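Much of our argument rests on the idea that a fold can be written as discrete symbols. This step matters because it turns folding into a mapping between discrete strings. The record that follows shows the chain in one-letter code together with its fold in token form.
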Amino acid sequence: MFHQTVEAHVATGTRLLETSDITDRVTSVGLSQNGQVLVAVADKSLFVFLRGSSGSFSNPPHVVTLVGYCETVAVHPSGTWLAAADQQGVVYVIPITGGVVGTPVTWIANEPLNPVNPLSLMGPVKFHSIAVSRTSDAFAVGGWNFVYLLTRVSMSAGTPGPVARFSSVDAAGGHNVRWVAIADDGSFVATVVNDTDHPTHKGLLIRLSPSAGQLIPDFKSALKNPPNTTSVDSSGTRIVVADGFPNFTPGAFYLFDNTGAKLATHVTTDMNWPIQISADGSGIVGGSDTNTLSFFTP
């Protein structure tokens, strides 16, 4: 079961970065494991700040202009590359070598605009989430009805692209991909999708493993409400989910094992958006529209 505490601490210290270069809403940030590389995306711009020997971050930042509006970016823990994906279907991998931000390598995801019509026109996937593995060069991107598994190698070849793909489309139509998480070694991807037409549940947690160019579901576990985010621990044995939509309706936090068995549920009176499990699986933090921040231990 979950054991819950609610706590908040605010600390003061030396300001390492203050910038006026970002003039739009920041929709996503990323930080390398050693804190030397910081990235942020706002509208169609990606900002890369590199931390110098003085301890402060470079300012002005290196700016990468993106094709479309972007709300998701991630930095590899090594700080040697980062990945982003925008809402024009473009996936970006950007190397960082010797303190120099390199030229992006890109790939564009196009899929049928009407997923149940084989004659449908094609259009770009609106990406919503990205996750980079900790100990491999694999990463996952998700949006619309699709999840892709890519690697830094697959994005540096003469024809960049994914190594595996998952479509949530079935006889009932598409199921909107809300979030992705990835195992440390890139061996599987966890995603949460809407299933709002189902009579007994409104979302699914799906664990996906690559096989012959496809991401194959290992399991699908029901979520009572439309889902928002998911996270995986380093061992790949625990997966957490936050759900709830729309506002002013109940939501829940969930803990699953790597077989899809539900180990714990904590119900809230309003929707829940973010959730994160620690690398060792000993702590889980979740945020709720009940205006609370909750910390759980499994």
